[in-house]
Design goal:
Four Helix Bundle (Hemerythrin (Met), subunit A); 12 helices; single chain; Helix Hairpins
Length: 309
């Protein structure tokens, strides 16, 4: 029964809003450390301090001694990121390559490693890498994870709608060249200029100006612009917004389901711990332990299936 308790309390952690099962090859105590809320808060605090330092470094009239201090703090933050990365990598024990199976781990590793002198001669790239290091704060924000998940979900239908929008813009662009090209060459002289004008009109910026100029050159201006506004701007763009909102609803529902599973798993762990706390287990308690283990396996299996979709 000691083995049963070890399985329920040491082989998984709850982090980033998910149930993370710790494989046998991982160093359990170190993995639980890097997934702990205290460790995450320390890293998040360093990222925020680093962000403040980078913001102050953009001030043109900052004192040279203050600038030097801020640069030193930025360097210290980079070494802290490196230490955090090494701890997380070592926590994978005998199979460190499994560290690179998660997207955030690959992102963190790439940004930190590239920051160490590989682009020392290119100041712009180094500054961009400094900024990208701050993106790591997203790992600790549940709502940002939901938003990211919704964006990923919406990509396939968004690509289909993007093709539709491009075809609509191309058709209207060619029509604009034929109707207004000779009289308004600066806005409709060729397909490139026409597409640029139509893209600006997607935001309805300068719409009265474009419409007024076109009305002076062709009687087709009014049906052209009205149909474009209603078909492309109002209808198609609202479809895009609907796709994103639907994906966000699905991501929030999935997040609620994860929270429910975490709560159920936590209750199972507490019940198992209560059963085994006295060191004596009856036949009835053994049956209850087996039932709780089956429930736990079902929850973990469901979580894995969702992650693979």
């Amino acid at each position: 029964m000691a083995k049963t308790k070890e399985i329920t309390s040491k082989n998984f952690v709850m982090a980033y809003g998910e149930i993370i099962e710790l494989e046998e090859h991982r160093i359990k105590w170190l993995a639980r450390l890097v997934y702990s809320s205290q460790f995450e808060l320390i890293v998040a605090f360093v990222i925020l301090v680093n962000a403040v330092c980078l913001a102050l470094l953009t001030m043109p009239d900052i004192d040279s001694s203050v600038r030097e201090t801020l640069n030193q703090l930025d360097t210290y933050a980079l070494f802290i990121y490196l230490g955090e990365l090494m701890i997380r990598l070592v926590s994978y024990g005998k199979k460190p390559w499994n560290f690179f199976r998660q997207g955030w781990n690959i992102f963190d590793f790439s940004i930190v490693v590239l920051s160490f002198g590989l682009f020392s001669g290119n100041t712009i790239i180094l500054r961009l890498l400094r900024i990208f290091r701050l993106v790591r704060i997203f790992r600790f924000l549940p709502e940002v994870r939901v938003l990211t998940s919704s964006i990923v979900r919406s990509l396939p239908p968004l690509l289909s709608v993007a093709v539709l929008i491009f075809l609509a813009l191309f058709i209207y662009g060619m029509a604009g060249v034929y109707i207004f090209g000779e009289q308004l060459p600066e806005s409709w002289g060729n397909i490139t200029l026409a597409l640029t004008s139509l893209f600006i009109l997607l935001t309805l910026e300068n719409f009265p100006t474009y419409l007024e100029e076109a009305l002076e050159t062709s009687p087709w201006a009014l049906p052209f612009f009205l149909s474009y506004i209603f078909v492309v701007v109002f209808t198609v763009l609202n479809v895009l917004i609907g796709i994103v909102l639907n994906s966000m609803d699905e991501a929030r529902e999935e997040n609620r389901e994860k929270k429910r599973q975490i709560k159920e798993l936590d209750e199972i762990v507490h019940e198992v711990d209560d059963i085994t706390s006295d060191g004596k287990v009856t036949e009835d308690e053994i049956a209850r332990l087996r039932k709780q283990l089956r429930l736990m396996e079902a929850i973990l299996h469901e979580g894995k299936k969702r992650k693979m979709k």
